[in-house]
Amino acid sequence: MASKLPQLQTKLAQASQYAAKHGGAWYKQLVERNKQYIQEPPTIEKCQTLANELFYTRLASIPGRYESFLKELDYVKHLFRNRQELKVENAGIGALFALECLAWFYGGEIVGRGFTFTGYHV
């Protein structure tokens, strides 16, 4: 690990130099490209107002999302009650969805451990 420290310091220095050289131009280009999203005047009060609007809009959307969730849950319950009418295509889609959820779970676990498979760093 100690032998990798100088290499890491060199890479960090290179990244810092690149950011210092190109960061200002990138920032100006980013702001210019997204000018339609910028609120005028850019004050703290305006930012707080936008944050409150976002929070309360999302809060107000909870009942609609809850209703959608209940509909989906009712659909799954209906499928389980009528298993004999279940088509192979629907079962395959369900199995693929479950497999995808499992893969995302395992991927998240690996990322959470710092991209190690054993759980410890070498």
Automatic annotation (TrEMBL):
This is Uncharacterized protein. Belongs to the ATPase g subunit family. It comes from Carpinus fangiana. It is found in: Mitochondrion membrane. GO terms for cellular component: mitochondrial membrane; proton-transporting ATP synthase complex. GO terms for molecular function: proton transmembrane transporter activity. Keywords: ATP synthesis, CF(0), Hydrogen ion transport, Ion transport, Membrane, Mitochondrion, Transport. One of its GO terms (biological process) is proton motive force-driven ATP synthesis. It comes from the Eukaryota. InterPro entries: ATP_synth_F0_gsu_mt. The keyword Mitochondrion applies.
